[in-house]
Specification:
A: 443 residues; globular; B: 159 residues; mainly alpha
Chain lengths: 443, 159
C-alpha cells in the first residue's frame, strides 16, 4: 500500500470508529497505531509508545490548560457570574432588549477569566436566564442570547481552543491571546447589535425596563472590580513580558480563588467541585492530544499531509479562496464532531498547507496568528450552529421549557453577526494583528 | 465495586489537584522571587513540566469514570438504547486496552531512563521520576475503563 492510500485508510478507520461511539481519542489512536505498525514495524512502534504519553504531558505550554481551567472553575463556583450580570444589567438593562444585552456583556466579562465556552454559557445562564424570563423576555431571545453569549468565553482570552492551537502550531500563546482581543470585543459588539436589531423587529420579545438608579449601579460596580483587576494583572503581565502564560494562569487562578474566598463563596464543597471539573476537562483534552499524537506520527510517516499540501498547491487557487474553503470545511466538520478534537486532528495537516500560501504578504508568524483567530471563529460558530450546537444543548438543559427549535430560530440572528465578524477578520488581518504589532514592536 | 473505583479515581483526582496547587504556588513564588529579589526558583520550568505531567495524568481516571472522554453521538441517536450501551461498552474496552498498552510502555520507558541516569538540566531532578509518576495513573485509567465498560454493558448509568 502506498503512503497516501494508507493515510486515507487510517482516516476512514478513524471516522468509522467515531461513528460507532468509540471515544474520539481512541478512534484516532487505534488507526494511528495500526498505521505506524505497518509502516515502521513493531520495534519502532513499541519504542515510540514508551515516551508518547510523557512527551505530551510534560509539554510546558500544556500546563497553561489545567491552570486556566482551574481559574475558570473557581470563577464559576465562586459565583462571579452573578456580580457581573448585576453590574451589566444595572448599566444597560433598561433599554429594549437590554437584559439580553447585559447577559451577553456578562458572558464577555466572564470570558476574561474563563477559557471555556460551555462553562461560561452554563454559569451565566443560571443567573441571567431567570431574570430575562421574569422581565417578560421571549424564550427564543433569552435562550439564544445565552447560547451565543457563551461562545464569548472562548472568543475572549483566555481560551482553551486557542491554547490548543498554539501548542499544535508551535506559536506564542501570549501573541495569540493579544490577537484574539479585538476580534473578541468586535464579536461582543456585533452580538449587542444583533439584539438591538432583533428587538426592533420583534419589540415584544425584549420589553424595556425601568432605569436603575446611580446608587444601584455604584453598588454593583463595587462587586465587579476584582474581576477587572485580575484580568489586568494576568494579561498585563503576560503581554508585558513579566511572566509566561503558565505563570499568568497561576496568578489568575490564585487571585480568582482569593476573590471568591473573600466573598465567602468558596466553601470546601465548591473547592472540591472546582478540582473535579478541572480534572474532567483537562483529562479529556489530554486524551485527545494523545490520540492525535499517535495518528499524526503515523500520518507523518505516510507523508499524506505533504501530498495534500502539494496537491492543493498545484491547483493554483487564490490563497484567500483556499482559506475560505478551509473555513467551510471546518464549519461542516464541526457540525458533527467535537470542536477541540477537530482542531487537534486537522491542524497538523492543514497548518503546513496554510503556511505555504501567500496571504496579503504576511510573514509566517503573523499568518499563523491570523489563521489561529480564524480557526477560533469557526469553532465558535460550530458551538451554536445546528444540528449539534453544544451551547444550545447546554442552555436547553437549563431551560427545558423552551423547545430547542425556538433557540435555534433566535440563534440565527447571532449567526449573522458571526458571519460578519469572520468575514471582517478574513478581509482585514490588522484586526487580529494590530495589538500584536503594537505590543511586540514596542518590546 | 463502584465505591472502591470511585474512591480511587477521586483520590487520584484530588492528588492531581494538590500537585497543581503546588505548581501554582511555586510559579507565583518564582515570579515574586525574580521580580523583587532577582532570584527565581531554580529550574522552575522543569518543575512545572514535571508537576503538570503528574497532575494531568492523575486526572484521567476521574475523567473516564465520569465518561467525559468525548464521543460523537450524532450518527447513533436513532439506535435503540441497548445497542448504544453495547457500543459504549466496546468503546470503553478499547480505551482500557490502549491505556493498558501505554501504561506498560511508559513503565518500561521509566526503567530505561532510570538505567541511563538522565537528569533535568537545571533542577537536576532525575528524569525517570516523571515517567514513573504517570504510570499508576495510566494503569488506573485502564482499570476504570474496564469498570465503565462493564457498567455500560449491564446498562447501569454512570455518576
Amino acid at each position: 500500500m502506498t503512503g497516501l492510500a494508507l493515510g486515507i485508510a487510517m482516516f476512514a478507520g478513524m471516522l468509522a470508529l467515531m461513528a460507532l461511539r468509540v471515544p474520539i481519542a481512541i478512534s484516532m489512536f487505534i488507526p494511528g497505531a495500526l498505521g505506524y505498525l505497518s509502516i515502521a514495524g513493531e520495534a519502532p512502534f513499541l519504542n515510540l509508545l514508551k515516551g508518547i504519553a510523557y512527551a505530551r504531558l510534560s509539554n510546558y505550554d500544556l500546563s497553561v490548560i489545567p491552570l486556566f481551567l482551574l481559574m475558570g472553575a473557581f470563577a464559576t463556583q465562586g459565583g462571579l457570574s452573578r456580580s457581573l450580570f448585576a453590574f451589566a444589567n444595572a448599566l444597560i438593562g433598561h433599554v429594549r432588549g437590554g437584559v439580553a444585552m447585559a447577559s451577553v456583556l456578562a458572558c464577555a466579562a466572564f470570558g476574561t477569566v474563563c477559557g471555556s465556552s460551555v462553562a461560561t454559557c452554563a454559569t451565566v445562564t443560571q443567573v441571567a436566564l431567570p431574570e430575562m424570563r421574569r422581565h417578560g423576555y421571549s424564550g427564543r431571545l433569552a435562550t439564544a442570547s445565552m447560547a451565543a453569549g457563551g461562545t464569548l468565553g472562548i472568543l475572549i482570552p483566555p481560551s482553551v481552543v486557542l491554547i490548543v492551537y498554539a501548542i499544535l502550531a508551535e506559536q506564542n500563546i501570549a501573541k495569540l491571546f493579544a490577537a484574539a482581543m479585538l476580534p473578541g470585543i468586535l464579536g461582543a459588539a456585533l452580538y449587542l447589535g444583533a439584539i438591538a436589531i432583533y428587538v426592533r423587529l420583534y419589540p415584544s420579545h425584549g420589553p424595556a425596563q425601568p432605569r436603575h438608579s446611580a446608587a444601584e449601579l455604584l453598588r454593583a460596580a463595587k462587586e465587579v472590580w476584582p474581576i477587572g483587576a485580575i484580568f489586568l494583572v494576568v494579561f498585563g503581565g503576560i503581554y508585558g513580558g513579566l511572566f509566561t502564560p503558565t505563570e499568568g494562569a497561576a496568578v489568575g487562578a490564585a487571585s480568582t480563588f482569593l476573590s471568591a474566598l473573600l466573598k465567602g463563596e468558596m466553601g470546601l464543597e465548591a473547592f472540591k467541585r472546582s478540582f473535579l471539573s478541572t480534572a474532567e476537562t483537562a483529562g479529556f483534552v489530554f486524551m485527545i492530544f494523545l490520540g492525535a499524537d499517535m495518528l499524526n506520527s503515523a500520518l507523518a510517516l505516510s507523508q499524506m499531509p505533504m501530498r495534500i499540501a502539494d496537491a492543493v498547491g498545484a491547483l493554483e487557487l487564490h490563497p484567500v479562496a483556499v482559506i475560505a474553503s478551509i473555513m467551510l470545511l471546518y464549519i461542516l466538520l464541526s457540525s458533527v464532531m467535537d470542536e477541540l478534537a477537530m482542531i487537534v486532528l486537522t491542524i497538523p495537516i492543514i497548518f503546513p498547507l496554510v503556511i505555504e500560501l501567500d496571504i496579503y504578504g504576511l510573514g509566517t508568524t503573523e499568518k499563523s496568528i491570523w489563521f489561529g483567530i480564524l480557526v477560533l471563529s469557526v469553532v465558535e460558530i460550530g458551538l451554536i450552529a445546528p444540528p449539534v450546537g453544544l451551547n444550545v444543548y447546554v442552555v436547553n438543559s437549563l431551560a427545558p421549557d423552551v423547545p430547542m427549535l425556538e433557540t435555534y430560530k433566535g440563534v440565527a440572528a447571532f449567526l449573522v453577526a458571526d458571519v460578519v465578524r469572520v468575514a471582517l477578520v478574513l478581509a482585514f488581518p490588522f484586526l487580529s494583528l494590530w495589538l500584536v504589532r503594537l505590543i511586540w514592536a514596542a518590546g | 465495586m463502584r465505591g472502591a473505583i470511585e474512591l480511587a479515581a477521586k483520590a487520584f483526582a484530588f492528588a492531581g489537584g494538590a500537585v497543581l496547587v503546588a505548581m501554582l504556588v511555586m510559579s507565583v513564588s518564582s515570579i515574586v522571587g525574580r521580580t523583587i529579589f532577582k532570584s527565581p526558583v531554580p529550574g522552575d520550568f522543569e518543575l512545572v513540566q514535571l508537576a503538570c505531567a503528574a497532575s494531568i495524568a492523575a486526572f484521567l481516571p476521574w475523567c473516564q469514570l465520569r465518561r467525559a472522554n468525548i464521543i460523537v453521538d450524532f450518527f447513533t441517536t436513532g439506535l435503540p438504547p441497548r445497542a448504544r450501551s453495547v457500543l459504549d461498552a466496546i468503546g470503553a474496552l478499547l480505551l482500557a486496552a490502549v491505556m493498558a498498552l501505554v501504561a506498560w510502555r511508559a513503565g518500561l520507558g521509566a526503567e530505561a531512563i532510570y538505567a541511563s541516569g538522565e537528569r533535568a538540566m537545571i533542577s537536576r531532578i532525575p528524569q525517570w521520576i516523571g515517567y514513573a509518576a504517570i504510570v499508576p495513573s495510566l494503569a488506573l485509567t485502564a482499570l476504570v475503563a474496564l469498570y465503565t465498560a462493564w457498567e455500560s454493558f449491564i446498562d447501569r448509568k454512570g455518576v
